[in-house]
Write a structure and sequence with these properties.
By secondary structure, this protein is mostly helical. It is built from 13 helices and ten strands. The strands form five sheets. A two-stranded antiparallel sheet has the order 1-2. A two-stranded antiparallel sheet has the order 3-4. It has a two-stranded antiparallel ribbon with strand order 5-6. The chain starts with a strand and ends in a 61-residue tail after the last helix. The structure holds 2-acetamido-2-deoxy-beta-D-glucopyranose (4 copies). It is an enzyme of class 3 (hydrolase). Keywords: Carbohydrate metabolism, Glycoprotein, Glycosidase, Hydrolase, Polysaccharide degradation, Signal.
Length: 521
C-alpha cells in the first residue's frame, strides 16, 4: 500500500507513507534470520506495550501513557520514564499506527496527554515557567513526579525527540482530517519543546548516554531535525516558528564541526576517541528520502556516514572475546563506544540493530536513486564487503551495483543474526549481553532494544519513515555563530480525544512508484 499526502499549497515539503511491496510469497522467507526477525518483531511490539502504563503488564503502577525504560527495579533501576526513550518508542509506535496498527491509538493519545503534564513538573532542572528549563529534565518517576536525586542534567535531546515524535502524530492527524486535534492537543506541547531547543541548543548538556557534559553530535542532529520539521508543522497548524527557522541552519553549521575527515566525533571534550554508536543513531534518526546520500545531514548512505560505520564497527573487532575469529567484512558485536566501562563495557542490542538499520536505509536509497557512488571517503567501507570496489558511480543496471547491494544486505543481516544468537529463547532482549559469554546483562526487557528491533525490521522490509525536511535543508550558513532564540512557553491543556480516530477522510491517495522499490533480496 502506498499513499501520498500533499501538504498545504503554501508548503513545498510533503509527506509520504511508504510501504514496501509485499514479498511475492511466503517461500521467499527462507533465510532463518528473516524468519526470526519477523517473529521477534511481534514479540517486540508486545513487550513495548507491556512497558506502557497503566495496562502494560510490567507498568501497572505507571500512569496512562507513561513508558518505562525497563521493568528492572534494581541493578540497574530503570523503573522510571525518560523523555528520550519514551519519545523514541512513541515515534516507532506512531509509524506502526500510520501504517495500519490502529489499536495503538490509545497509547499514543495517552502519551500526548502525559507529556503535556510532565512538561509542567518542576524538577532540579527547573520549570516550564522559568524559560522552559524544566524541559531539560531527563527522567521522571512513573507516577509523573520529579526525580530529585543526582543525575546528569540537563539533557537537551529529550525535548527535540519528543517534538519529532509528536509532529509525526500531528502530521497524521492533519492528513486525516483531524486538524483541530493537531492544533489544540499536539502543537502546544510541540511548541514548548521547539522553544526549548531554539533557546538552549548552543549550551552544553549531558549526552544521550548521560555521562558526558559537553556538546554532542547526536543531540545537535536531533535538534536540527526537530526545528526543521517544527517550522513546517507550525505552518501546517496555522502558526509559525520563526525561532525554528533562525536556529536550524546554525545547528547544521555546528554539526559539520564533528566530522573528523574519517569518522563523526560523538562529542567535544573528554579523553575519548569520540567513536560512538550515537553517531549511527543520529544518522538513522535523521534519515529522510528527500535528502538522498547527502553528506551535510549525514544521511545513512552518505560517504561520511558509511566511513563512520566502518570506523565504529572496527573499533570493537579486537575488543570483545565474542568477536574472535570474525573476519573483516562480517558483522561483529558492537557496543556504545570502545572506552565504555558501564557493566565493564559490552555489546548492546540496540547498537547492533542500529548498524543494520543504517545499511537497510542505504540500500533503500540507492535503489530509489538507481545508482550508488563510492568516493575516496567511503571506499574502505565498500572494500571490506566487495574487494573489487573502486571510486565511481554505478547505475542500477550494472553488475557492480547489484553485487554491492547484495553484499551490503548480507552484511546488515549479519548484525541482526548476532542479535538473534544472543536473544533469550522467549524473545526477551535486555540492554546488553556479555562480551565474553554472550549472556544477557543489565536491565531486562529494555524498551529501547525492542524499539530498535521494530525499526530495523521495518527498514529491512522497505517500510520507510515519512520524509522530513524541506528544500534547502542542507544549505549551511557561510559562518557558524554562537546563537539562540526565544520562543513561547505555555502550559499545554489537551482536550478529550475521540474514542476512535477515523482514517483517511478527505485524503487524496496517489501511487508513488519511484519511492517503493523493495531492496534486492
Ligand atoms: C528568561 O530569560 C531571559 C533572558 O535570558 C531573562 O532575562 C529572564 O529573566 C528569564 N526569565 C525567567 C523567569 O527565568
Ligand atoms: C555554539 O555554537 C558555536 C558556533 O557553531 C560553536 O563554536 C560552539 O562550540 C557552540 N557551543 C555549544 C556549547 O554548543
Ligand atoms: C572487478 O572490476 C573490474 C573493473 O571494474 C571488472 O572488470 C571485473 O569484472 C570485476 N570483478 C568482479 C568479481 O566483480
Ligand atoms: C524470558 O526468559 C527470561 C530468562 O528465562 C526470563 O527472565 C524472562 O522473565 C522471560 N521474559 C518474559 C517476558 O517472559
Amino acid at each position: 500500500m502506498l499513499c501520498l499526502h500533499a501538504w498545504g499549497s503554501a508548503v513545498l515539503a510533503f509527506v509520504l507513507c511508504v510501504h514496501g511491496e509485499p514479498s511475492s510469497s511466503k517461500d521467499t522467507l527462507v533465510n532463518p534470520t528473516e524468519n526470526w526477525l519477523a517473529d521477534e518483531a511481534e514479540i517486540a511490539l508486545e513487550r513495548v506495550l507491556s512497558n506502557i502504563g497503566p495496562n502494560g503488564q510490567y507498568a501497572r503502577s505507571a500512569g496512562p501513557g507513561i513508558i518505562i525504560a525497563s521493568p528492572s527495579t534494581e541493578n540497574p533501576d530503570y523503573y522510571y520514564t525518560w523523555t528520550r526513550d519514551s519519545a523514541l518508542a512513541i515515534k516507532t509506535l506512531v509509524e506502526l499506527f500510520c501504517n495500519g496498527k490502529s489499536s495503538l491509538q490509545t497509547q499514543i493519545m495517552n502519551y500526548v496527554d502525559a507529556q503535556a503534564i510532565l512538561q509542567t513538573v518542576s524538577s532540579p532542572s527547573g520549570s516550564l515557567a522559568s524559560n522552559g528549563t524544566g524541559l531539560g529534565e531527563p527522567k521522571f518517576t512513573v507516577d509523573g513526579k520529579a526525580f530529585m536525586g543526582g543525575w546528569g542534567r540537563p539533557q537537551h535531546d529529550g525535548p527535540a525527540l519528543r517534538a519529532t515524535a509528536l509532529i509525526a502524530f500531528g502530521n497524521w492527524l492533519l492528513n486525516n482530517n483531524h486538524g483541530h486535534l493537531a492544533r489544540h492537543n499536539v502543537w502546544p506541547v510541540v511548541r514548548n519543546d521547539l522553544s526549548y531547543v531554539a533557546q538552549y541548543w548552543n549550551k552544553t548538556g549531558y549526552d544521550l548516554w548521560e555521562e558526558t557534559g559537553s556538546s554532542s553530535f547526536y543531540t545537535a542532529s536531533v535538534q536540527h531535525r526537530a526545528l526543521v520539521e517544527g517550522e513546517v508543522f507550525a505552518r501546517r497548524v496555522r502558526d509559525s516558528c520563526v525561532y525554528c527557522k533562525s536556529q536550524s541552519p546554525q545547528i547544521l553549521c555546528f554539526m559539520q564541526s564533528f566530522w573528523t575527515g574519517s569518522y563523526i566525533r560523538a562529542s567535544f571534550g573528554g579523553s575519548r576517541s569520540g567513536v560512538d554508536a550515537s553517531t549511527l543513531l543520529a544518522s538513522i534518526q535523521s534519515f529522510t528520502l528527500m535528502a538522498g546520500c547527502d553528506d551535510v545531514t549525514f544521511q545513512p548512505c552518505s560517504p561520511r556516514a558509511l566511513a563512520n560505520h566502518k570506523v565504529y564497527t572496527d573499533s570493537f573487532r579486537s575488543l570483545y572475546a565474542l568477536n574472535q575469529g570474525i573476519a573483516q567484512g562480517s558483522a561483529v558485536h558492537v557496543g556504545r563506544y570502545p572506552e565504555d566501562v558501564y557493566y565493564d563495557g559490552n555489546p548492546w542490542y540496540l547498537t547492533a540493530l542500529a548498524a543494520a538499520e543504517q545499511l537497510y536505509d542505504a540500500i533503500y536509497t540507492w535503489n530509489r536513486l538507481r545508482s550508488l557512488t563510492i568516493t575516496a571517503v567511503s571506499l574502505a567501507f565498500f572494500q571490506d564487503l566487495y574487494a573489487n570496489a573502486t571510486v565511481g558511480t554505478y547505475i542500477s543496471s550494472t553488475a557492480t551495483f547489484k553485487n554491492i547491494l547484495l553484499a551490503v544486505r548480507a552484511y546488515a543481516d549479519g548484525y541482526v543474526a548476532l542479535v538473534q544468537m544472543h536473544a533469550v529463547t522467549n524473545g526477551s532482549l535486555s540492554e546488553q549481553y556479555d562480551k565474553t559469554f554472550g549472556t544477557q546483562l543489565s536491565a531486562r526487557d529494555l524498551t529501547w532494544s525492542y524499539m530498535a528491533l521494530l525499526n530495523a525490521n521495518m527498514r529491512r522490509n522497505a517500510v520507510m519513515p515519512p520524509p522530513w525536511g524541506s528544500p534547502g535543508v542542507s544549505s549551511i550558513p557561510s559562518v557558524c555563530v554562537a546563537t539562540s532564540a526565544t520562543g513561547t512557553y505555555a502550559i499545554a491543556h489537551t482536550s478529550p480525544w475521540p474514542a476512535t480516530l477515523t482514517r483517511g477522510i478527505g485524503v487524496s491517495k496517489a501511487k508513488v512508484t519511484a519511492g517503493a522499490q523493495r531492496p534486492l533480496l
